[in-house]
Amino acid sequence: MFNKVTIVGLGLLGGSFALSIKKLIPGVSITGVDISMPNATKALELGLANQIGEFEVSIKDADLIVIATPVDCIPNQVIQCLDQLKPGAIVCDLGSTKLNICEAVKHHPKRNQFIATHPIAGTENSGPEAAFASLLENKKIILCDIDLTESHLLNQFKNMLTQMKMQVEYMSSASHDKHIAYVSHLSHISSFGLGATVLDIEKNERNIFIMAGSGFASTVRLAKSSPDMWTPIFSQNRENISAALNQYIQNLTYFKSILDENNLEKIHQFMSETNDIRRVLDAPPSPKKD
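Given the sequence above, the corresponding structure tokens read:
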């Protein structure tokens, strides 16, 4: 498969991807690259990489390059990798937005060696210490605009993901960004908004600690996510996120109005209709479509 792998960005996703590859491919040599020297040192100490290298050097002879950096850095890094990529090698990114990245590289002469990739996996933690080998197991991973990738390389990469116990799905980059705004990005904004509201209203932190149950903890968990990672994600996908927020705000405004009216029938109806999300989430996967 891949004998030499370079991981650019040694945080939660990059580090977990590295551990998964090491578990899958005996003897693989992983070179880690990170702008933060403390992160690089910690990643080496934790065994996420066999050695730490410089970006420009580490990409030249790699069989696979995995870019796991903030999404505003990824387009330029993919282009730099493609400029230096040897024949038969693959570069992929793990960014949470896809359209801007795909648009940036679509005219590159080596575009067919790039795979736009998004693993639907993560936690609220960040940094090398947050990485663990099983993070990606039994998780979905979305590959975008696959018609632009050379089929042999795509199959090679897909086979690796399957052996890593990931569930491979396909979408266009535009469709990916539209849907991810609702099912991921809006969830994070909601969590940040709830956290900010509680901190604004509840000045007694002891009361938060005493009264916070599992519902609050699970809902606000994402508010502990890294602002350094999520600020560029929100910026890159702002049009889709804005549309999602408009609908969300309408629902919140409606619920406030029926609550102010003490309209128990409509409150009950609102929740009953929303319970249909159980059917959507628990249903078997429908046939793949864009």
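The beta strands are 4-8, 29-33, 51-52, 64-67, 90-93, 114-119, 140-144, 167-171. Try to locate this feature in the token string yourself.
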